[in-house]
Amino acid sequence: MDHAADAHRTDLMTITRYVLNEQSKHPESRGDFTILLSHIVLGCKFVCTAVNKAGLAKLIGLAGETNVQGEEQKKLDVLSNEVFVKALVSSGRTCILVSEEDEEATFVDPALRGKYCVVFDPLDGSSNIDCGVSIGTIFGIYAINDGVDPKIEDVLQPGKNMVAAGYCMYGSSCTLVLSTGKGVNGFTLDPSLGEFILTHPDIKIPKKGKIYSVNEGNAKNWDGPTAKYVEKCKFPQDGSPAKSLRYIGSMVADVHRTLLYGGIFLYPADKKSPNGKLRVLYEVFPMSYLMEQAGGQAFTGKQRALDLVPTKIHERSPIFLGSYDDVEEIKALYAAEGQK
């Protein structure tokens, strides 16, 4: 046995250790936020295991109509939702939960109430499960004043008021990317330890990228600025090389690549979806928060994404996010359109 190597493995920056270190910088902290995050991490580990088994489920009889106990089998997105709702409620630190899977917000029982509101998409890109494409969980956290009865308005806040946001991607490895308002860090699940280890400290998105990411199948319905921007990516007039197109169709995977490699991710409004397709609270806001924390930008076609004030919990918005200079270009095209 290589004892030296094993000793080195114990000196790892786990996500728990990282969050506790952050907590120690705030002497007034009671540890509520740390407890909440540990419950989110547990939910991510659970879903990661379920996703990894999904392909085998049919083969080994886990996805039949009913199992041997006569319990009906659940689809992964429904299962993931239940896992996160239970994990968040049992933390005793949440008061309102908004999930992509539930039409109404969940108000936590007063006996288990805390001061945090969590908005989340338990399994984003779940239509990609059967073909093995990366999918993920997206979450954002708001804090409300202690001792105040929670109201739905407490989650209908602009994204800039979030205290933390992140996503967990279930792909070739399980990666959790988190920001608590002081930069962005990436953690990878070590299956042999069952721990998330800090593998991507202080992620910074390149100022300009070489990749654009958009569903070009919608091109005939785009507005002028989006069409012009994509044309410019493919046929640059200034002698620079054309950008590469990369589009997975799973927001977590596309944003993860954009964050690490730079470039721009676009989901514009179009004639078919005049308000865009992605949901503000648990897709647009958390991803925009991470992008800004990593030195990038996020824009809706009208304003900074994090300044948007939602009026409904499942509201949608167009979104352009990624490298600072690339988003500046699309902003300039929208500004020019507005001056016509």
UniProtKB/TrEMBL annotation:
Please provide, in alphabetical order, the Gene Ontology terms of the cellular component aspect for this entry. cytoplasm
Name the Pfam families for this protein.
Answer: FBPase (PF00316), FBPase_C (PF18913)
The reactions it catalyses are: beta-D-fructose 1,6-bisphosphate + H2O = beta-D-fructose 6-phosphate + phosphate
Question: Recorded E.C. number(s)?
Answer: 3.1.3.11
**Top EC class for this record:** hydrolase
Q: Which UniProt keywords apply?
A: Carbohydrate metabolism, Cytoplasm, Hydrolase, Magnesium, Metal-binding
Give an example GO molecular function: metal ion binding
**Which positions, given as ranges, span the membrane?**
none
Predominantly, its location class is: cytoplasm
Q: Which compartments is it annotated to reside in? A: Cytoplasm
All copies of the Fructose-1-6-bisphosphatase class I N-terminal domain together span 13-201
The Fructose-1-6-bisphosphatase class 1 C-terminal domain sits at 205-334
Q: List the Gene3D superfamilies.
A: 3.40.190.80, Fructose-1,6-Bisphosphatase, subunit A, domain 1
What cofactor is needed?
Answer: Mg(2+)
Entry's family note: Belongs to the FBPase class 1 family.
Could you tell me which NCBIfam families the record lists for this protein? PRK09293.1-1 (NF006778), PRK09293.1-3 (NF006779)
| Name by which UniProt lists this protein | Fructose-1,6-bisphosphatase, cytosolic
Question: What is the species listed in this Swiss-Prot or TrEMBL entry?
Answer: Salvia divinorum (Maria pastora)
